[in-house]
Design goal:
The structure is a homodimer of 66-residue chains. The first copy, chain A, contains five helices and two strands, in the order βαααααβ. Chain A is mostly helical and 66 residues long. Chain A has a two-stranded antiparallel sheet with strand order 1-2. The N and C termini of chain A lie close together (9 Å). The relative contact order of chain A is 0.23. The structure holds a DNA duplex (30 and 30 nucleotides).
Chain lengths: 66, 66
DNA sequence: CTAAAATGTCAAAATCTTTTTACATTTCAA
DNA sequence: TTGAAATGTAAAAAGATTTTGACATTTTAG
């Protein structure tokens, strides 16, 4: 499971801390997700996609045939 | 957070047990998600969408402005 | 209607995500 | 190059999801 969060976040010049703030989660959560430490919950993923004006399918993708 | 899993699953005449089997999760997990007991992990949500030939955004939706 | 199949539900345990606090490393502007 | 800001990381605790096993209720086929 990988994602393009860092990419889209930087394109918009937002800090991890600000993203976290807008989503009411901790900065560490954003950081961990960006660095593929674990699978976020669906709600957080959807809010992230919405904030970054993207879709879940575009922002996150399963590797190979999973 | 609501979803259309039961709807799409029935349209395909699949049982909860079979959906669970194909996703390697328990039947109770499928049942609980169908009945909005909690937010699934993103990976499970994406696999569900894929299996039901849908997208996460189409299968799941946040209420109001969340 | 009746039996079997499918679904709903519960509770305890296991597993995983998220928070918090704290510090190390990297990046970037001055 | 130096210092400040941003990011990376770690570990313990809290909170949420998932599993397991068991049983109740609903649905469906015969």
């Amino acid at each position: 499971m990988k994602n393009k969060i860092k990419e889209l976040r930087k394109a918009r010049k937002i800090r991890q801390e600000d993203l976290a703030g807008q989503l009411n989660v901790s900065r560490q959560t954003i950081n961990a997700i960006e660095n593929n430490k674990y699978n976020p919950t669906l709600e957080l993923a959807m809010k992230l996609a919405k904030l970054l004006e993207s879709t879940v399918e575009e922002l996150f993708f399963l590797e190979d045939g999973k």
